[in-house]
Every structure is written in C-alpha cells, then in structure tokens.
Amino acid sequence: MLAPGTLKAGKQVKKAHRKVVVFASLVGVLMFTSALLMALAPAPLTPDATNSLFAVDTPSSSMDAVFQTEAPSTNTAWKFIYVHHSRSGGSPVQPNGELNDHFVIGNGMGLSDGEVQMGQRWEEQQSAAAPVRGTKIDPQCISICVVGDFDQTRPTPTQMRRLSQLVSTLQAHYRIPLSSVALADQPQSVAGSGRFFPVTAFREQLIP
Asked: Which residues pair with 181 in a beta bridge?
C-alpha cells in the first residue's frame, strides 16, 4: 500500500502535467490562428518596390515631395498621365517584386486608405511598364495605379481626393494638359479604370 504522501505527490504531478498540456494546447491554437490571419491578409508592398510618401491627412502642398527623386527629373521629361486600377483588393506588386507603375494609391488593404506610394521606376525616372502583357505604354507617360477592383466597386473618397491632388500636381509641374490624362475604358481588364470609376467627376477636378 502507498503512503498518503506518495498519493499526494502523484496527484500533484498529474495536476502539473495537466497544466502543461492545457498551456501547450493554448499556444498551438494561438500559433495556428496567427498563421491563418497572415495567410488571409493581402500582401503588402515590398520596401524594395515602393517608398511611402504621404499619410492620409497630409496637405496637398506636400505633394511636391514626388519631385525629390534619386534621379533628376526635368520639366520636359513627362508628357502624359495614365490612371488605371489594380483590379484586385491588395498589392499591385508583381510576383518578382517589381512595380510596373510610378505611383500607387492604397485603399486600406495592405496600404492605408489614400496612402500614396512612389515606385522605384519613378525614383530612377524610368518609363513605366504596361499593366497587360503584349501592350505598350508611351515612354513619357506617368503611370498611376489605384488599388481596387472598380468593375465591382467604387474607389474610396480618400483615394479619389489623393489621386486628384497627385495628378494636378504632376500636371502643373510638367505642364500636362487634361487632354493628355488618360483613363482606358476596358471592362474586366487591369489596363482600364473600371466601370464604377467616376471619370467625369475626376476630370472636373483636374487642370484643364
């Protein structure tokens, strides 16, 4: 027969073992939940692809920061502006980590709503790449991608305000007329601006 002290020690061991099992199970659940949330979250823009420029509430006058690039830019370097949507909820960065566009405007998924980011192509004053394979974009065209699928929904008011500020700033600096600001009417294509993009209201806010 076991002594009372031995029984008591055995119970304490079992109790301690039960605590360890419960704690390990809790840690496992938390790790699984964290991994699941990370997998479901949209991919953020990589630091190598873009540099964040503005917070949501930054005044429009600070848009002049877009001209502080690594490579010098002249007033005659750019002749056109092209705006299109990412046709996705998250990052427009390519699988190889590159960004085809000069600028990206976030929608709150991966980037803050209305956050403007400047791509490496703009930093180096290089031409943008066309958003669709097999097509070309003018070497003197500034390309801006607004994050979202505007064949399904509208851009946010903050996105539109930031886009208007950015385009107007570029127009003024490079003397780009409204007729040279392009939005393609291509439904179900990343090359277009999307059927719900407010084209008329947007153009009314730009420099003629």
From this structure: 81
Do 34 and 74 lie in a common domain?
no
In the three-class reduction of DSSP (H, G, I as helix; E, B as strand; rest coil), residue 158 is classed as helix
DSSP 10-69: HHHHHHHHHHHHHHHHHHHHHHHHHHHHHHHSPPPPPTTTEEEEE-TT--GGGGGGGG--
Within 88-206, strands assigned E span 103-105, 116-119, 141-146, 181-183
Q: Check whether residue 15 and residue 36 sit in a common domain.
A: yes
- Say whether both 20 and 112 belong to one domain: no
**Number of domains the chain is built from:** 2
Task: Identify whether residues 99 and 19 lie together within a single domain.
Answer: no
Q: Which residue's entry shows tokens 């990052």?
A: 91
* Tens digits of residue pLDDT in 137-191: 999 999 999 999 999 999 999 999 999 999 999 999 999 999 999 999 999 999 9
- How many CB atoms neighbour CB 139 within 10 A? 12
Looking at the fold, whether 36 and 56 belong to one and the same domain comes out as no
Give the pairing type, strands 181-183 and 80-85: parallel
Who contacts 90 (Cβ-Cβ below 8 Å, separation ≥6)?
42, 43, 109, 110, 147
What CATH number does residue 117 fall under? Answer: 3.40.80
